[in-house]
Amino acid sequence: MNAPALHRAAGERAIARCDALGVAPYSDADSGLYRAWLTPAHRAAQAAVAEWMGQAGMATRLDAASNLIGRYEGEHRDAPALLIGSHLDSVRDAGRYDGPLGIMLGIECVAALHARGERMPFAIEVIAFGDEEGSRFPASMFTSRAVAGTLAPGALDGVVDAAGVSVAQALAGWGLEAAQFHQAARRPDEVIGYLEAHIEQGPVLEAEGLALGVVTGIAAQLRFEVSVRGRAGHAGTSPMPLRADALTAAAECVLAVEAVAREAASDLVATVGRMQVLPGATNVIPGRVSFSLDVRAGDNARRDAGAAQILHRFEAIAAARGVQVEAVQVQDLAASPCDTHLVELLAQAVETQDIAPRRLVSGAGHDAMVMRALCPTAMLFVRCDGGISHNPAERASAADAGLAVAAMLDFIERLGAIRGN
Ligand code: GLV
Ligand code: MN
Ligand code: MN
């Protein structure tokens, strides 16, 4: 087979593997895909991916933070590694490519090098991270933050999922210890860079007729857990003016979130994606509501100003309605520019596939934003249908995945030429 046919076959296999991981036992849901960190579905997916890594010529291991790592040695043993990764966890009712595609494309790059018996001046490690989405616990990217060495001491303490299971208990179920989690940290001298391929999750590449794009940076994120305390009461006997309804107050807060982001008329975006109403009965005025708040912008200052404005509006709503609103920040991920040198190299690799190297900023979060603290990062975007993501209708084509493999291999070769000199 010639190179384009090989890359095309690699793209087909990468897509087919993502599809295979889209159903039970690789999903925790009976129908559709939901794969959360440290669940049986995650475990099953890791086993399948470890097997594919082995077939591609990699030695596999699980690190102290539950990340699956496949290593393909370089020309010399113990050479520092180029890390290629993405995440295995998903949102609820997910698409099949957000996360897994980046891992499968990394495996295909190594498989191609292995098939032609080629070693680079550096090792290649493909990493399958566990919790980029954070759909089980309130915060995300514990696993990549552990690898990057930026996880604060005690960061896992008291973190529980909706069922009250702590991170420490979930890790223990996998034979891992929370006390050792930080040992997943890599030394900067062990690593030369981090490359992540990911579906774009937006419509730009498709609109411009481009299969691939080059990410220049990732937007800043804040996450909060907000709780509203009112007064539960009888739905039939409590006159409207005498109520302290936590849900109507929360509803006003949600509209305030939307209004602040709209009024900013910038790249500020703010979302309430989850809400719990207690006690949750038809004939009881809600006494307590908790909801998530996600605030993002291309730079930290715009994000922080937007969040401050939202919290200010919450205070006013609480005062006007006689309820208490408390917002606890559970995550702060700074805006994360990619490395200019690696961006340039990736742009050249994309251009070599006869694709204009469109540069774009990622509004979605990625493990790459965390890995920047450890090493230079680069991200390749792959076009997805209609820009649809976080949705079962998410699609990427085998042809585009094949072009991604070709561009990533070209990037690896370019890096090899530089490092070999
Ligand atoms: C992950 O997809 C995120 O951007 O939150
Ligand atoms: Mn993702
Ligand atoms: Mn996602």
Automatic annotation (TrEMBL):
The entry's keywords: Hydrolase, Manganese, Metal-binding
Species this protein is from: Pseudoxanthomonas winnipegensis
Pfam families: M20_dimer, Peptidase_M20
SUPFAM superfamilies: Bacterial exopeptidase dimerisation domain (SSF55031), Zn-dependent exopeptidases (SSF53187)
Entries under InterPro entries matching the protein: Amidase_Cbmase, Bact_exopeptidase_dim_dom, Peptidase_M20, Peptidase_M20_dimer
Subunit structure: Homodimer.
Membership in a protein family: Belongs to the peptidase M20 family.
Co-factor(s): Mn(2+)
Identification of the protein by name: Allantoate amidohydrolase
Residues spanning the signal sequence: none
Residue intervals of the Peptidase M20 dimerisation domain: 222-318
